[in-house]
Structure formats: structure tokens, C-alpha cells
Amino acid sequence: MNVTIKTTLILALTCALAPLALAAEPEPVADTAKTGAIVPAAPVLSEGVVKKVDKDTGKITIQHGPIKNLGMGPMTMMFRVKDPAMLEQVQAGQKIRFHVNIVKGAYTILRMEPVQ
Ligand SMILES: [Cu+2]
């Protein structure tokens, strides 16, 4: 088998797999209707006040209220953020709502929005 045929095969496989990956995207509403399982329509949001933003390390310190989805009580602690760009939207002293979960063993903020 020459290199050109190998490359063509790999490309063909990649293209064939891409639509499968898209089709596997979860559809919570449809699944809930079918199975009756309790699937939250939206991620659980917790409230907090930003204490410190560290753009260099991609971390944020938050004085947070109860985090129901993690069973965590109120405290001040540091979190990772999923995307460093999220740190551009907030500053120390700001009230926020956020969704946090454990990603690769670390508390990671997956969504964050300022509260007016
Ligand atoms: Cu905590």
C-alpha cells in the first residue's frame, strides 16, 4: 500500500466518523420524554463574589454560597476555569452566578455570568 492510498483512507475514515460524533450529541429534552429520567434542563448555577482573578494561572477565587450539585457548603476557594477567556468578563468584588463541576479531578467552572 503506498502513502497516497493510506492518506486517502485515513481522510475517508475521518470524514465518515465526523457525522457519527455529531449524531451522538445528547438531546436532554427528547431523552427525558422517552425515559422519564430526571435530567436538569439547565446546569445548576451557584452564586458567589469574586475575590481574586488570576489570568496567568487561569484561576479564580470565589466566596461562594452552597453548591448544590457538588454538595458543598459556603466557603471561599479557588477554581479553575474551562476557558481562560471567561476571566476577562469578571473582576474582584463582582457578584456572579456560575456552574462548577469536577473535570479531571479539579473543580472547574464551566459557565460564569455577572449578576447585576
Ligand atoms: Cu467550596
Please explain how this structure is put together.
The chain has 116 residues and is α+β, with helices and mostly antiparallel strands. The chain has 2 domains: 3-35; 46-114, OB fold (Dihydrolipoamide Acetyltransferase, E2P) (Beta Barrel), CATH 2.40.50. The protein is 25% helix and 34% strand. A hairpin with a 2-residue loop joins strand 4 and strand 5. Bound molecules: copper (II) ion (CU). Copper (II) ion is lined by residues 64, 72, 75, 77.
Shape: globular
* CATH hierarchy class name of the largest domain: Mainly Beta
Question: What class, by secondary structure content?
Answer: alpha+beta
In DSSP terms (H or I, runs of 4 or more residues), the helix count works out at 2
Output the CATH homologous superfamily of the largest domain.
Answer: Copper binding periplasmic protein CusF
What is the total tally of β strands?
Answer: 5
The biggest beta sheet, please?
A: 5 strands, mixed, barrel
Quick tags:
globular; alpha+beta; 2 domains; single chain; 34% strand; 116 residues; five-stranded mixed barrel; OB fold (Dihydrolipoamide Acetyltransferase, E2P); binds copper (II) ion
